[in-house]
Amino acid sequence: MKAIAQSIIDAHGGLTQWRKFTQVRADLVQGGALWALKGQSGVLDRTTVTVATDRQWASHAPFGTLAAKSEFTAERISLLDQAGDVKQSLEGARDSFDGHTLETPWDPLQLAFFAGCAMWTYLNTPFLLAWDGVECEEAGEWVEQGETWRKILVRYPASLEVFSKAQAIYVGPDNLVRRLDYDVEIAGKTPGAHYVSDYTTVSGIRIPTKRRIYPRLPDGNSVAEPLVVSIDLSGITLT
Fold first, then answer.
1. In this structure, are residues 134 and 155 in contact, taking their beta carbons and an 8 Å threshold?
2. Sequence-distant (≥ 6) Cβ neighbours of residue 202 within 8 angstroms
3. Per the CB 3.0–4.6 Å rule, which of 79, 167, 203, 229 could disulfide with 67?
4. Sign of the C-alpha dihedral, residues 156, 60, 50, 191?
5. What pLDDT, in 10s, does the model give residues 163-195?
6. What does the pLDDT look like over 186-227, one tens digit per residue?
7. Which residue, among 212, 220, 216, has the nearest Cα to 196 in the 3D structure?
């Protein structure tokens, strides 16, 4: 593992500690303009999210009134009932977003894919930097919020289902993540600036409990309106 990745991962609790666990679970409250824009207002406003740390899997339970829970993997998205039986499923879900723009509505399976892909990536960051095939490199300094951050370019392998293969992570003087940049390819390559804050320590791992996502301009700066997505986490457990 590169020294760049090592320093960031160590600041969040270290890879040895992280690999003691196979799941992260949290109570999730979400807001922002995206959900209504996609015709899915209220479905995932309040739920519980669980993600795997050793494979690409995520679940939201309940999935609004539509299903008892969702299941996301890189290959398949499913909605399940209380008995665990599949109500709806879709393989190769990314292909269903072909031609989408930011304003294109989603169906429930597309919402489940987006939410699962998002929360799996978010809750596994920055430990994803240690995954096979993930590459990272320094990209200079960035001044924001009265601090000088290191900008790290990250490239994800084809084997991982993420919003975009090329992304950026910004870390503060303490090597904790402050911001993530990516282009949401399944929503017309919409550029986002994703800020994280309000860290808590759970089982020796540093985890941000507050996330706010705003539009990103071509020069890298963000704009304060609209708030695209807000995410607040509580009751976090690692098992």
1. yes
2. 236, 237, 238
3. 79
4. positive
5. 999 999 999 999 999 999 999 999 889 999 999
6. 988 999 999 999 999 999 999 999 999 999 999 999 999 999
7. 212
| Inter-residue contact 162 to 186 (CB < 8 Å) | no
Structure tokens given for 232:
């607040």
3-state secondary structure of 64: coil
Q: By residue range, what is the domain housing residue 30?
A: 3-238
Q: What is the CATH number of the domain that holds 144?
A: 2.50.20.10
Using the 8-state DSSP alphabet, how is residue 54 labeled? S
Q: Under DSSP, is residue 91 helix (H, G, I), strand (E, B) or coil? A: strand
| Structural tokens at position 194 | 């994703």
Question: Tokens 């919409």 map to which residue?
Answer: 190
Residues 64-85, mean pLDDT to the nearest whole number: 96
How far is 134 from 154, CA to CA, in rounded Å? 7
Q: Is the peptide bond before 108 cis (omega within 30 degrees of 0)?
A: no
- Per the structure, how many domains does the chain have? 1
